[in-house]
Amino acid sequence: MLLGDGDGFVRCACGSVHWGTNGAAGLLLSDPERGVLLQRRAWWVHHGRTWALPGGALRSVETAEQAAIREAEEEADVPAHAVRLTATSVVDHGTWRYTTVLASVNGAVDARVANAESTGMRWVPPHEVAEYPLHRDFARAWPALREHVGRRLVLVVDAANVMGSVPDGWWRDRAGAAERLRDRLAVLAADGISGGHDGIPGSDRWRWLPRIVLVVEGAARSVAGLDGPAGVGVVAAERDGDSAIVEVTREALAVAPDDHVLVATADRELRARIEAEGARPMGPSALLGLLPP
Fold it and tell me: What's the CATH code of the domain at 183?
């Protein structure tokens, strides 16, 4: 076998030998009807004849997300356009790291064995995964991963409340302030949100790639009609902002009841209303602390 960029074994500080001189990544792809996609590794690869995720070594010029998608396409014929990334979870040993890239199907995916590194591809219901002879490291990681399979982080932002928490003159140009907030949220959507704090699920090893909805009202409603960066949906309240936020929250959970829905607001009455719907509140200061300047 010819070694390429990133191929090779690393003797790790943990005492084990791992594949991937730049680290490695795998795609944990879920389908609500079929389960998660597992790969049976060929006998000749590292930890052969076990079941794990399509994945492999990172190249020096790619991110973990890019590597996981590339490997899934090479090994399982999973088209990149049919994958919607939702989160990443990292195991970092210092001398080597593995990134599990969680995703949901976003189109037709008919996975199949696409190269000699696999002898099987199978959709497995999450409750049956642990019954398979799993790759040692995947078996250790699976209990924490299973909790978030198929779940997305949805962040609903009360624009008026968040803007009002900072006395920066926003009231002189409410539409302009809302537009600036939208643009900062778009950066957050692209960079992701780390877990384990302020009600955000997962540990600090998790990074969520959220769906963000900004709810605007009053003079800021014009922002909903403007072209803006990808990653943030803008909803203009037809009546009051609180009712629109509750409606957005209700609709999000109706479509995907298992999603993690956070609502950024300090309004006590609104917080009680969205908690009754099954969402969790996040304080404006916590959200602002995540945003770029």
Answer: 3.40.50
Helix and strand element counts for the chain (H, E): 7, 16
Residue 76: Cβ within 10 Å count? 24
> In this structure, are residues 55 and 19 in contact, taking their beta carbons and an 8 Å threshold?
no
Secondary structure (DSSP) of 178-191:
HHHHHHHHHHHHHH
pLDDT score at 3: 63
Q: Are 253 and 278 in contact (CB under 8 A)?
A: yes
| 213 closest CA partner among 137, 265, 138 | 265
Residue 58 forms part of a structural domain: yes
Going by the DSSP 8-state scheme, the letter that residue 39 receives in this structure is: E
Q: Indicate yes or no: pTM above 0.90.
A: yes
Q: Residue 15: left if φ>0, alpha if ψ -120 to 50, beta else—which one? A: left
Q: Are residues 205 and 134 in the same domain?
A: no
Q: Record the tokens describing residue 178, joined without a space.
A: 């809302």
Domain of residue 198: give its range. 153-290
Q: Does 4 fall in a domain? A: no
Give the pLDDT mean for 134-138. Answer: 94
86 plus 214 within the same structural domain: no
The CA-based angle 75-77-80, given to 5 degrees, is 110
Contact 132, 124 (CB under 8 A): yes
Which tokens in the block code for residue 58? 């990172």
CB proximity list for 268: less than 8 A, separation 6 or greater = none
Measuring CA to CA, how many Å separate 175 from each of 88, 217, 228, 233, 263?
34, 9, 13, 15, 21
Domain with residue 133: its CATH number is 3.90.79.10
pLDDT tens sequence across 63-105 = 999 999 999 999 999 999 999 999 999 998 888 899 999 999 9
